[in-house]
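Q: I have 603 residues here and want to know how they pack in 3D. Can you give me a structure?
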Amino acid sequence: MTDQAQIRNFSIIAHIDHGKSTLADRILELTNTVDPRAMRAQLLDSMELERERGITIKAQAVRVLYRSQADGQTYQLHLIDTPGHVDFTYEVSRSLAACEGALLVVDASQGVEAQTVANTYLAVESGLELIPCLNKVDLPGAEPARVAGEIAELLGEPADSVRRISAKTGEGVSEVLDELIARVPPPAGDPDQPPRALIFDSEFDQYRGVIAYIRVVDGAFTKGQAIRAMQAGTEAEIDDIGYFGPQMTPTKGLTAGEVGYLITGVKDVTRLRVGDTLTSKLAPAGEPLPGYREVKPMVFCGLFPIDSDDYPDLRDALEKLTLNDAALVWEPETSDALGFGFRCGFLGLLHMDIVRERLEREYDLELLATMPSVEYEVTLADGATLPVHSPTEMPEPGRIASIREPYIRASILTPKEYVGQIMELCQERRGEHAGMHFLSPERVQLGYDLPLNEIVLDFFDQLKSRTRGYASLDYELIGMRESDLVKLDILLAGDPIDALSMLVHRSKAYEAGRTMTEKLRQKIPRQQYDVPIQAAVGARIVARETIKAYRKDVTAKCYGGDITRKRKLLEQQKRGKQRMKQVGRIEVPQEAFLAVLELGEKG
């Protein structure tokens, strides 16, 4: 058993692409944790999707042994590599709860970005010891002096205390680990108390059941011990226990301060939840650990299997994925156009995209996603309040007294020359200016209050294209505000198509309706009769397009002669088409639904 004074638990936090995963690679190499033959770039990003997109999606834990250059002693370091994207902030906050310190990594050429600021505040709120590191100092475009000044202003520390490192070459990494050992306190748990461990992550293995990632706070856990989850009340026996090195390495037990995993053979994914406290069944602890705030989904969309027979498989896949991804929520829903599916809640658009892709790859499903929307609060005329997640749930206009929508406070960091373009973009999206702050003579932090609905689709893409990729965005929910919103229905040959309805601000209803009808006219195949496509707000039609009918040339066999013969044939064709229109039903191809989603993405 390792002495508690020799243990350090720390996390690496940074903005996207500032070098967290590369620094984790260098630490693994420096401590000889991984065989050089098995080493590869971004080793901890084990998911295929992470390697493909070059981003970290899941936090990863690993134990390394490091011999300090200062005192010559060997220390047990538990490193947790965290994601950098705003959609995965909840992963970062869960990882920080299992640590006492954090390395704050900042790119020496990019400088302090929005997620750097957000993650710094998260770490400070969690009471962690922060060690700032300036990465990529070997790049030709690096400006260490300027960026160190930005970090100093953010943390209130002198600029010369910021460590200069290169995660790519390994320069300065061992000095950072020595400083980490000196400044980060060892875990404070009591090894003699009844055992308590926090589940900070989990995954599902089809052969072994639920694998819980734990941080032991008090006492010790050993193989074969009977344990109990304090909130869920689940009782089980430890089949296997160990640590990540970075592969799962079995051991006899884990003591206070250590990070590892345990497997109990529990197959029901709802019985061991992230944030629950594990204790001994025979000598239980008095009270559970604080756990986590419940994460609230911000973006909702419907997921429907393209083949309706895959519905039970989709349910199983969502259950298993929820265990690994605590921020995903879902409930069954039906649609006239798309059949049976699930209404799912996500933290943002990237989160939605990742979940959909994981369902398709890992569970071999073909899915169709509807237009993303946010959660609205509708106050009815009788005073009752109703949460609305999709346009189909919206009550009749006559019953609605007011509609409230979620607002976010956006923090945008940008070089000063792009301030005008960003302000213009935010004004277009119904934004309200909420302050401006110069981080340095060249970089500005802009604050805007924006409706979440306006940033959910393509705001980030627009921001990047207008600032040539230099701006960065972070946001937090600030509450609900009343807005003049209307439900825009799409009618095909007079029938509303529920899957194509959307909620828009009244001032944008005409523009959205016109674009939508134009797009559908291009995508829906022609029929034997004219098909009107209409966009309507209540009973008022705001835009209309017509898909013109095919016209068979019935007069081809008439050459020369009396015009009345041609007229008679055309009249017969017209009557036949009217009869067809009465019984005809338009088939809407899947491309039409996808076109509407593309329309949202392109604004």
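Q: Anything worth noting?
A: Confidence is low (pLDDT under 50) at residues 599-603. The two ends are 59 Å apart (CA to CA).
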